[in-house]
Amino acid sequence: MKLLLDTHLAFWWQTGDPRLTQNIRAVIENSIQPPFVSRASLWELTIKAGLGKLRIDLPTFIAQVDAMGFAWLPIENAHILQISQLPIFADHKNPFDRLLVAQS
């Protein structure tokens, strides 16, 4: 099974945040293939840090994702086109989540 980590999961994994449950941690640790982290997540973290909503050292985050052996998932044209096929829900319009769904 291939895993694409949500932005929060990737950040929580990297920071050791206790909100990452033991079950999720076990799935990541026992993954046969390296989990993917989307470049969209890096983009989202950059924006949140710039807005002051999050404290993160982005170069360190990138280096740690690389060191953990996770795979970066690029943003492809096909992913962007797939977004137009997704339903829009009034209570959840986060563009980064929509891109992650399209990439998955």
TrEMBL record:
Signal peptide: none annotated. CDD domains: PIN_Sll0205-like. The lineage of its organism: Bacteria, Pseudomonadati, Pseudomonadota, Gammaproteobacteria, Chromatiales. This is Type II toxin-antitoxin system VapC family toxin. InterPro entries: PIN-like_dom_sf, PIN_Sll0205, TA_system_RNase. It comes from Thiospirillum jenense. PANTHER family: RIBONUCLEASE VAPC16, RIBONUCLEASE VAPC16-RELATED.
